[in-house]
Design goal:
OB fold (Dihydrolipoamide Acetyltransferase, E2P); 8 helices; transmembrane transporter activity; ABC_transporter-like_CS; transport; 36% strand; binds adenosine-5'-triphosphate; alpha+beta
Length: 368
């Protein structure tokens, strides 16, 4: 046991490695997860997020490194002796039991009296919005309600950390969005640390205080949602978290972390140090620009930056509230995707229409 853990860190991961035979599933994961935060492990299938979650829970031994919970090394500590509890993807609800019996199942080894158990069950059901459902048979519940029962069963043990392995993946889109909001509210109410595993970027952005983006057993970036979106440190992270245009560019000058770039089709731009999260060096580079940081100027509009570029619309994808335009910039081998909020009365452009583009140079991100 070490006493270097700052009081705000409930979990410390120190160079955690995991091998399955020859397969290196976790490749030196180091991170601190803070007391009371909503933390997500986000990454594509197979990147190791479930392995990491299971290692924290104690269902999986690690090959080397250290996992500390509340400052205590968890090596050799079985799952039921850790201050964690896990909610699984496949809810694991007993259909033949009532809702209350399912929730009370978590307390079977607690040594509590029947009266205490009843009180705890009622409190847990209240917490997840199922106060009146105690007597209902579990098989007569909707997917969202089952999910809540699973949550109540995990929360009744008052863990310090709740681990959630893709808990919403079996729900339809509408239900999922509703449960996302409810989970955030629940987390704030109970005030304990939630760690969510998800491969859904939007879900992670909406729900998390901080997100660890994982690829191939490593954390590529750990940041709050806004920084991940606005200041991705690599192209891979940028592409995984939403859409981004990558334009060929040349860094012509670097001074004090700032960079002067010549962007194909868009001209010169001066970038602040924060816009160069991966550093800046003279020479060929790419400029990342989100579709919503570009805009099409309609008649009479002028670019805020005073500069614009002419192009032609190649593709139009209509989303109701938004339209995405692929625009080929004249005089450059560059095509950009532009997203525009649809305004009442404004005509949606069509393929082949000329388009004058403006952009926000402050939204540019440099990738060396
Ligand atoms: P998904 O979103 O698909 O669940 P994940 O990011 O959670 O993916 P893991 O389940 O952690 O990924 O798996 C990471 C890698 O380790 C995968 O390549 C997987 O095949 C491998 N793996 C997981 N469990 C085992 C095991 N018990 N034995 C061997 N290999 C395993």
């Amino acid at each position: 046991m070490t006493d270097t853990t700052p009081p705000s860190a409930i979990i410390t991961l120190d160079k955690v490695h995991k091998y399955y035979g020859d397969y290196h599933a976790l490749r030196g994961i180091s991170a601190e997860i803070r007391q009371g935060e909503f933390f997500s492990l986000l990454g594509p299938s197979g990147c190791g997020k479930t392995t990491l979650l299971r290692a924290i829970a104690g269902f999986e031994d690690i090959s080397s490194g250290e996992i500390q919970l509340s400052g205590r090394n968890m090596e050799g500590v079985p799952p039921n002796r850790r201050p964690t509890n896990m909610v699984f993807q496949s809810y694991a609800i007993f259909p033949h039991l009532s809702v209350a019996e399912n929730v009370a199942f978590g307390l079977r080894k607690s040594g509590k009296t029947p009266g205490e158990k009843r009180r705890d069950v009622a409190e847990a059901l209240e917490m997840v919005g199922l106060a009146d459902f105690g007597k209902r048979a579990a098989h007569a519940l909707s997917g969202g309600q089952r999910q809540r029962v699973a949550l109540a069963r995990a929360l009744i043990l008052k863990p310090k950390v709740l681990l959630l392995d893709e808990p919403l993946s079996a729900l339809d889109k509408k239900m999922r969005e509703q449960m996302q909001v409810e989970l955030i509210k629940l987390q704030r109410e109970v005030g304990i640390t939630f760690i969510l595993v998800t491969h859904d970027q939007e879900e992670a952005l909406v729900m998390s205080d901080r997100i660890a983006v994982m690829f191939e057993g490593e954390i590529a970036q750990l940041d709050d949602p806004e920084m991940l979106y606005r200041r991705p440190q690599s192209r891979r992270v940028a592409e995984f978290i939403g859409m981004m245009n990558f334009l060929p560019a040349e860094v012509v000058d670097v001074a004090g972390g700032k960079a002067e770039v010549e962007v194909a089709g868009l001209g010169r731009a001066a970038l602040e140090a924060g816009q160069c999260p991966g550093g800046a060096a003279k020479g060929a580079a790419r400029i990342g620009l989100r579709p919503e940081s570009l805009t099409i100027l309609f008649e009479g509009q002028t670019a805020e930056s005073g500069r614009s570029a002419e192009g032609v619309v190649e593709e139009v994808v209509y989303y109701g509230d938004m339209t995405y335009y692929d625009v080929l910039i004249h005089g450059a081998p560059s095509k950009v995707s532009v997203s525009m909020r649809n305004m009442p009365g404004r005509r949606v452009l069509e393929r082949g229409d000329p388009a004058r583009l403006a952009w926000d140079p402050r939204a540019m991100v440099l990738f060396p």
